Amino acid sequence: MSASQVHEQAIVAASAKVGAGVRVDAYAVIGENVELGEGCVLHSHAVVQGPSKIGRNNVFHPFCSVGGDPQDFRFQGEKTELEVGDGNTFREYVTISRGTVGGGGKTTIGNENFFLASSHVGHDCHVGSHVLFVNGATLAGHVTVEDYATIGFQSPVHQFCRVGRYAYIGASTVITQDVPPFSRVVTERDTKSYGVNTIGLERKGFSEERLKVLQRAFRLLLRSKMNTTQALAEMRKSFGESDDVRELIRFIETAERGIVK
Q1: Does 72 share its domain with 142?
Q2: Residues 143 and 229 both lie in one domain
Q3: Catalytic residue among 45, 61, 123, 142
Q4: Does residue 85 lie within any of the structural domains?
Q5: Which residue is catalytic, options 67, 68, 141, 152?
Q6: pLDDT band at 1; cut points 50, 70, 90
Q7: Is-catalytic flag, 103?
Q8: Domain check: are 108 and 175 in the same one?
Q9: 120 an active-site residue?
Q10: Same-domain status, 175 and 212
Q11: Which pairs count as long-range contacts for 140-148, CB under 8 Å and 24+ apart, including other chains?
Q12: The CATH number of the domain where 106 resides is what?
C-alpha cells in the first residue's frame, strides 16, 4: 500500500491515526481520536470526527459529516463512539452521529453500504452491510437496519424501530413500526391532477380564450366518464384547432408511464 496523500490545506488532528494509502483532499478535516483505515478517501470539505474507528476503503464526499456529536439534548460531551466497517460510500451532506451513554455509547456501520446525499444515521443506530440509503433517508436514534435493506427517498424511520434483512421501504414512507425482513413497505399514493394551472398560465401571458379552451379539454380528460382514449378523440374533435390542445394530446399519446389524472 502506498503512503498517504494529505493535502497541505487539509486538517488532521494530532491524535488521529491515518492508515496507508489514504487520500485527504484540501479543506477536509480529520478530528481528534479518529482511526482511519487503509485506502480511505476524503474529498474536499469532508469531515470525520471522533472518537471513531473507520475501516478500509471508505469514501467520504464533499460536505459529509461522519462521527459528529449525537443530536440528543441529554448529551453532555461524554465519550461515545462510531465504528464503521469497510468499503462504505458517504455522499454529499450525509450525517452520521456517534452514540450516547444511554444508548450503549456506540453507533455502528457495517460494510459496503451506500449513503446517498443528505441521508442521516442517528445516535446508537446499528446498520448492517450492503444497505442502500436513498437521498434524504433518515434514521432516528436507536434504529437497527439489517443487511441488504433499502431505505427509500425521504423516508424517516422512528427511533427504536428495526428494519429486517432485504426489506424495501419505498419513497416518502414514514416508518413507525418494525419492518419485517424480505417485505416491501410503501405508503399510499393519491396524487391527482386538479386541472389547468390557471394562475401560472395567466402570469405567463395566456389569454382568457386560451385558458377556457384548455379548461374544457381538461374537463373532458378528468371529469367526464370517458376513458383516456375516448377523451382524446373528443378533444381532437371539439378543440382540434387549438395549438395548446394539440400539444396536450401529443404529450398524452406519447406517455410511456401513463399520466397523472
Answers
A1: yes
A2: no
A3: 123
A4: yes
A5: 141
A6: low
A7: no
A8: yes
A9: no
A10: no
A11: 141/70, 141/72, 141/97, 141/100, 141/103, 142/103, 146/181, 147/110
A12: 2.160.10.10
